[in-house]
C-alpha cells in the first residue's frame, strides 16, 4: 500500500490541465520503457474534464495512441451510445479525436449487448477480458495498469463502489455487477478494490466544493466500507489531485504547506 500524496491546484480547470500533462508524461514514459501503456479511465465530471484537457493539449501528439490500452473503472449499465455511459462521454471528450486502436479500447459491456439485463454476466465477461490481458509478469487476474484514475463522488464513492454496498466488500473478484446504486443509474459494472490496487499508480480526482467533505473523510483514516475512496491505492503511488475547493476541509496536517 502506498501512502497518499496530495497535489492541490488553484481551480478545477488548472487541475484538469495539470493532470492531463502528468498523464501524457506517464504514458510516454511507459511506452518508451515497455513499448505500450495501459490506463484505466474514470467517468464523472472530473474524469471527463481531464480528458477534455488532454484533447486540447498540443503535447497529446507525443502519445503513441496505437500502443495504449484503455480500460474503465466502472460503467453505467445502459444501452450502447447512451449519453450517460462513461465510454460515450469519453469518446466525446477525447477518444473520437485521437487515433486510438479500437482493439485496445476495452469498453465495459452495454445493457443492449449479449448479456442483456444480466449485469453480473456482463461483469464476469469484463473480468475475463482483463484476465486475458494479464501477463505472467502481472500479479493476478488483471494487468498491472500504469495509471488508474478515479473520480471521487461527494459520498466518497469511487468507480461504482458505493459506501456499504456489497461491491465495496468484494475481496475475490476483479469486476462485479452493482445493483441498487444510490446514484442513477442503479445498475452498474465496477472494478473492485483488489483490482484497483493492482495498478502501479492510482490517481484520485476531486474538484469542487461538493467533494470537500468526501476528501476530508477518506483521507482522515475512514474505513473503506464506509468511505470507498479510502481503500483505493496503487502499488507504487497513490495520488490525490484536488482543487482548492475540494481541499478546503482537509485537516491541516494533510494540507500541503503554503508557499512563503
Ligand atoms: O457515477 C459516477 O460518479 C463518479 C464521480 O463522478 P463526479 O461527477 O461526482 O465526479 C465517477 O468517478 C464514476 O466513474 C461514475 O460512474
List the helices and strands and how they pair.
Elements: E1 4-9, H1 12-34, E2 37-41, H2 44-56, E3 68-72, E4 74-76, H3 86-93, H4 119-133, E5 147-151, E6 175-178, E7 188-191, H5 193-196, E8 201-206, H6 212-218, E9 237-243
Parallel strand pairs: 1-9, 2-3, 2-5, 5-8, 8-9
Antiparallel strand pairs: 4-7, 6-7
The structure holds ligand LXAUTJHC.
The ligand O=C1O[C@H](COP(=O)(O)O)[C@@H](O)[C@H](O)[C@H]1O binds next to helix 2, strand 4 and strand 5.
Would you give an account of this structure?
It contains six helices and nine strands, in the order E-H-E-H-E-E-H-H-E-E-E-H-E-H-E. With 260 residues, the protein is an alpha/beta fold. The protein has helices at 12-34, 44-56, 86-93, 119-133, 193-196, 212-218, and strands at 4-9, 37-41, 68-72, 74-76, 147-151, 175-178, 188-191, 201-206, 237-243. Strands 1-9-8-5-2-3 form a six-stranded parallel sheet. Helices cover 27% and strands 17% of the residues. Bound molecules: ligand LXAUTJHC. The ligand O=C1O[C@H](COP(=O)(O)O)[C@@H](O)[C@H](O)[C@H]1O is lined by residues 42-47, 73-74, 76, 86, 150-151, 153, 159-160, 183. Ligand LXAUTJHC is lined by residues 42-47, 73-74, 76, 86, 150-151, 153, 159-160, 183. InterPro entries: 6-phosphogluconolactonase_DevB, 6PGL, Glc/Gal-6P_isomerase, NagB/RpiA_transferase-like. It catalyses: 6-phospho-D-glucono-1,5-lactone + H2O = 6-phospho-D-gluconate + H(+). This is 6-phosphogluconolactonase.
Amino acid at each position: 500500500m502506498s501512502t497518499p500524496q496530495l497535489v492541490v491546484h488553484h481551480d478545477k480547470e488548472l487541475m484538469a490541465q495539470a493532470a492531463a500533462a502528468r498523464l501524457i508524461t506517464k504514458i510516454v514514459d511507459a511506452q518508451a520503457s515497455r513499448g505500450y501503456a495501459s490506463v484505466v479511465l474514470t467517468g464523472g465530471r472530473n474524469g471527463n474534464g481531464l480528458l477534455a484537457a488532454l484533447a486540447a493539449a498540443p503535447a497529446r501528439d507525443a502519445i503513441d495512441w496505437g500502443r495504449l490500452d484503455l480500460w474503465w473503472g466502472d460503467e453505467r449499465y445502459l444501452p450502447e451510445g447512451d449519453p450517460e455511459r462513461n465510454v460515450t462521454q469519453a469518446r466525446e471528450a477525447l477518444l473520437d479525436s485521437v487515433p486510438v486502436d479500437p482493439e485496445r479500447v476495452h469498453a465495459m459491456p452495454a445493457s443492449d449487448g449479449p448479456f442483456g439485463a444480466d449485469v453480473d454476466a456482463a461483469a464476469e465477461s469484463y473480468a475475463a477480458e482483463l484476465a486475458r490481458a494479464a501477463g505472467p509478469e502481472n500479479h493476478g487476474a488483471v494487468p498491472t495498469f500504469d495509471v488508474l484514475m478515479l473520480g471521487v463522488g461527494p459520498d466518497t464513492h469511487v468507480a461504482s463502489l458505493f459506501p456499504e454496498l456489497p461491491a465495496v466488500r468484494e475481496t475475490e473478484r476483479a469486476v462485479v455487477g452493482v445493483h441498487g446504486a444510490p446514484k442513477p443509474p442503479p445498475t452498474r459494472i465496477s472494478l473492485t478494490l483488489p483490482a484497483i490496487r493492482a495498478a502501479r499508480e492510482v490517481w484520485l480526482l476531486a474538484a469542487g466544493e461538493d467533494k470537500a467533505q468526501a476528501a476530508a473523510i477518506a483521507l482522515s483514516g475512514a474505513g473503506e466500507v464506509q468511505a470507498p475512496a479510502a481503500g483505493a491505492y496503487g502499488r507504487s503511488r497513490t495520488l490525490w489531485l484536488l482543487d482548492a475547493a475540494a481541499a478546503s476541509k482537509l485537516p491541516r496536517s494533510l494540507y500541503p504547506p503554503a508557499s512563503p
